[in-house]
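call fold(seq) -> tokens
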Amino acid sequence: MRGKLGTAVVVVCAALIGACSQPQPPAAAEPTQPLDTRPTEPPVADPSEPVASGNTPVAADIAAIAGLGAQFDPARDPADDLATAKVEAQRGKKRILLEVGNAACDRCRALDEVVEGNGDLRRFRDAHYVWVKINASDEQPNTAFFAQFPMMERDYPYLLVLDADGGLLVSQATGELRKGEAFQPARVTAFLKQWAPDKPE
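ret:
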């Protein structure tokens, strides 16, 4: 009896093992997709687009912000640029500095050279301000945009410091930042520190 039971168990086990080891029918094959070999282009940021809200600037935000202070461009809309600057100033807890001038302005180029050529001054500016160049020329005076600010001298560059919401803090002619025709890095630095959102001790 014991022998018959053992043989039956062996037969049942062998049947189960055999059933489990049977090859399964192949699954229906997915149709083969052709490989996409077209060259891909990296995304290009559009500096004319205002920055999106959020805490992390994306490539388009960075390009848009860089475009604000790149050059005096009569084709740019200063109201759009100010809206972009406000978003970045609020995100970075910065002030907005509007540099009013034009491409033909020698003093405007001189101010750029002083700021860009001085690493400490440039870093301080970038840490505390969103710098925006606003064109004011015979070709494009941007009269409607400037109507919201006090009357400015046409002695360019002219500086307007705004809070992160666009409220005017100071309207500054740049004669005080120069000695003769030359901008003085110490005076420019003192002006930026005076109006920075978190003044150093």
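The CA atoms of residues 89 and 164 lie 5 Å apart.
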